[in-house]
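As the work plan foresaw, our protein records have gained a structure token line. A representative record is set out beneath this paragraph:
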Amino acid sequence: QRLQSASTAAMGKDNGGFLAPKSIANRIKAKGLQKLRWYCQMCNKQCRDENGFKCHCMSESHQRQMSMFTENSGAFMDEFSKEFEAGMMEIIARKARSHRCSANVIYREYISDRNHFHMNSTIWETLTDFVMYLGRTGKCEVDETEKGWFVTYIDRDPETLRRLEVG
């Protein structure tokens, strides 16, 4: 027994295996999606925790990106908003073309893509704001129920409209 203790001491300390912090962090990283709270849209950088995000924010590359953003914040917000809207509309057109679909279901599908644009980098503060925008601009028919917001895609494609007139 004495030999066994000496050999484990010589091999270094046991890190706890599966439940070790490093092991947990590696599994989280491998999974892909992490807390939005530690994501920098300007740099497309996901940080694991508050400390990592703080270090990232102090980095030279982040400071450069933020100075570019400061010079023309409107253009960046508009571009992020356009990309977010295009991604959401692609899903809405597919899932809610002929019947209404929950905005939350559509949003969950959108954010399941790890390369999505984050809503907090757009002009819309909430999903409700975005859904109301879709209704105001005539891109979707929207209605609010006790179960949340629902959207139905309004197809304005000229070819589709022509087929409906002829059909």
Observations:
- The CA atoms of residues 69 and 158 lie 37 Å apart.
- The mean pLDDT is 82.
- The first helix runs from residue 2 to 10.
- The helical segments are 2-10, 21-31, 50-58, 60-71, 73-95, 103-111, 127-136, 158-166.
